[in-house]
Amino acid sequence: MADLRGGIDLGGTKIQTVVVDGSGKVRGEARRPTPTSGGPPDVARAMAEAMREAAEAAAVKPEDLSGVGVGSPGDADEKTGVVSNARNLPGWEGSFPLGETLSKALGTKGRVGNDVQVATEAEFHLGAGREFQSLIGVFWGTGVGGGLVLDGKPWLGRGAAGEIGHMVVKRGGAKCPCGRKGCMEAYAGRAAMEAEARREHEEGHKTDLFKLMEKHEKPRLTSGIWERAIDHGDRLATKLIDRAIEALGTGIASVVNLLDVEAVIIGGGLGIRFGDRYMDPLKKEMGVHLFVDERPPAVRVASLGDLGGAIGASLLVGR
């Protein structure tokens, strides 16, 4: 069916798939956990299975879709469909032909783009960014990713623009999962926050984070676990979230100083969970660093929710 297309949001903890029609309406969806072991072929296999489930929910076959778009972490080459160095995924240090692999598995063409860029474009076209012509998407989750729309058009640079999570917010600071020091993601990425929580817990700092994780049978400290801990007055969880907000505000303000965008869209698992709750502290931290502070950008929480990345990925089909 030429008017239906698939979208896959490949995240560090989940694979979200959708089937959408020409107006962007979701006709079917499915979700699976991202594999925690193996390598790129194992991840691709789980993606194909989740896409088949979404197609079944939409009462179509995958091969009947006009195509399937993927929003992937790492260096996602739209021209070749190759994804490289997706370090938040198991065993993905090198390059893997994700687009070609999914195309063969699903029987329809596969397109690949950066996960946060496609989610940003979805918010620009269909969500919280519709009234603006320039914006940055900041997706706060397993890592911290960014996407750019400038003068109404996506800005990819030479293919890797928008990596806001790897802007240095503290020279010589905490070690980031990317291997460098002082990146925003080293303070605000969920994976780095969990690593720091474990380190401090082992040193004797009290926290219920890991008790809650076990109680709710989660393999990681999900956004929901962080929220429960904060709601229970957990001091370590509160400290680390506050530290993340400080890093986010510092880095986002620096981007605004450079590009002077109209709006900032906050998305991702942690961003959607905490965006409204921590909006005032985030704006306050940004204000400390904004050069032109009398006209700050609008700051909005992504309105497409958990499906935004997959819907944005579907927009790659036909591009």
Main beta sheet, described?
5 strands, mixed
- What coarse outline follows from CA principal-axis ratios? globular
Q: Count all strands and give the number.
A: 13
Question: What is the count of helical runs?
Answer: 11
Secondary structure: helix percent: 25-40%
H/E element order: EEEHEEEEHEHEEEHHHHHEHHEH
What fraction of the residues are assigned to beta strands by DSSP? 15-25%
- Uncertain parts: none
| Cα end-to-end separation | 17 Å
Average predicted local confidence, pLDDT = 93
Instruction: Provide the spatial order of strands within the biggest beta sheet.
Output: 3-2-1-4-8
Question: What do you see in this structure?
Answer:
With 319 residues, the chain is of the alpha/beta class. Helix content is 38%, strand content 19%. It is built from eleven helices and 13 strands. The protein has helices at residues 40-57, 98-106, 115-126, 185-188, 190-202, 209-215, 223-231, 235-259, 269-274, 279-289, 308-314; strands at residues 5-10, 14-20, 26-33, 68-72, 75-76, 83-84, 95-96, 110-114, 135-140, 144-150, 153-154, 263-267, 298-301. The strands form three sheets. It has a five-stranded mixed sheet with strand order 3-2-1-4-8, sandwiched between helices. It has a five-stranded mixed sheet with strand order 11-10-9-12-13. Strands 5-6-7 form a three-stranded antiparallel sheet, with no helix packed on it. The longest helix has 25 residues, at 235-259. The two termini are 17 Å apart. 50% of the residues are buried. The model has no long low-confidence stretch (mean pLDDT 93).
Element layout with pairings:
Blueprint: E1 5-10, E2 14-20, E3 26-33, H1 40-57, E4 68-72, E5 75-76, E6 83-84, E7 95-96, H2 98-106, E8 110-114, H3 115-126, E9 135-140, E10 144-150, E11 153-154, H4 185-188, H5 190-202, H6 209-215, H7 223-231, H8 235-259, E12 263-267, H9 269-274, H10 279-289, E13 298-301, H11 308-314
Parallel strand pairs: 1-4, 4-8, 9-12, 12-13
Antiparallel strand pairs: 1-2, 2-3, 5-6, 6-7, 9-10, 10-11
Helix pairs in contact: 1-2, 3-11, 5-8, 8-10
